[in-house]
Amino acid sequence: MSFEIRTFAASDLAGAKAALESVFRRAGSDECYNEWEFAERLLQSDGYVKELCLVARDGKAVVGYNALTKARIGGAPGLALGPLGVRKEAQGSGVGSALVWESIRRAKAAGYPWIALLGGDFYKRFGFEPAAPHGITVSDDAFENAHTQILFLDEVARGKTAGRLVYCDAFYDAQGRLL
Ligand SMILES: CC(C)(COP(=O)(O)OP(=O)(O)OC[C@H]1O[C@@H](n2cnc3c(N)ncnc32)[C@H](O)[C@@H]1OP(=O)(O)O)[C@@H](O)C(=O)NCCC(=O)NCCS
C-alpha cells in the first residue's frame, strides 16, 4: 500500500481517533483501552509538541498515528512514545515502522536525549531496551515496569538517566493514576 507520514493536523483528529479505536477497543468488553482519547487529550496538554505528533495517511484516510510527548525521568526532560496504532487493514506494510522511525528522526533533530515507552517486543528493532536495568520505573506495578523501555538518542544520557518516568498530564487521571 502507499502511504505518507505527516505532522498531525486538526483535520486528522477524527481519522486518528478512529484508527486508534479500531485497534485498541476490545470487542465484547465495557472495559476498554481508551488510547484513542489521547489523540484529543494531548492537544490540550503542555506535553504536546506539534511536530512530534504524526499520522500516516493513505490519500485522505488516516491509517496510523503516533505521538511523542514531553516526559521526565528523575526530573530530567525527554520524550514518551505513544499511543501508536495502525489500522488492521494497513498493518504489515511498514506503516508502524515508518511512524516510529520518523518520530525518532525528529526527536534526534530536536536534540531530545531519550524516548521512553510502555510496550512490547515491536520496539526492539528500533533500538529500545528495557528501562529497569537503568533504575527507571513508571509506577509501582511490576508488569508496567517490566514493559518500560528506553531508547537513548544521546549516549551522554545513558548512565545519567534514572528514576521515575513521568508522562505529561494527559496520561494521568484526576487521582494521578497512569491511564
Ligand atoms: C504494532 C503496530 C503499530 C505495528 O504496525 P505495522 O504497520 O503492522 O508495523 P510494520 O508493518 O512496520 O512492521 C511489521 C513488523 O512488526 C512485527 N510486529 C507487529 N506487531 C508486533 C508486536 N506486537 N510485537 C512484535 N512484533 C510485532 C510484525 O511481525 C512485522 O515483523 P517483520 O517486519 O519481521 O515481518 C500495529 O500492529 C498495531 O497498531 N497494533 C495494535 C496496537 C498496538 O499494539 N500498538 C503498540 C502498543 S505497545
Count every beta strand, where a strand is a DSSP E run of 2 or more residues. Answer: 9
Largest sheet: 9 strands, mixed
Number of domains: 1
The N- and C-terminal alpha carbons lie at a distance of: 33 Å
List low-confidence stretches.
none
Task: Assign a percent range to the helix content.
Answer: 10-25%
The CATH superfamily is: Gcn5-related N-acetyltransferase (GNAT)
- Principal-axis shape equals globular
| Small molecules held by this entry | coenzyme A
In terms of quaternary structure, the protein is: single chain
Which CATH C-level class is it? Alpha Beta
Helix-strand pattern: EHHEEEHEEEHEE
Mean pLDDT across all amino acids: 94
Instruction: Report the total helices.
Output: 4
What CATH calls the topology is Aminopeptidase
CATH architecture designation: 3-Layer(aba) Sandwich
What is the strand content? 25-35%
Structural class: alpha+beta
Using only CA atoms, what is the Rg? 16 Å
Keywords for this entry:
about 180 residues, alpha+beta, Aminopeptidase, 4 helices, 9 strands, binds coenzyme A
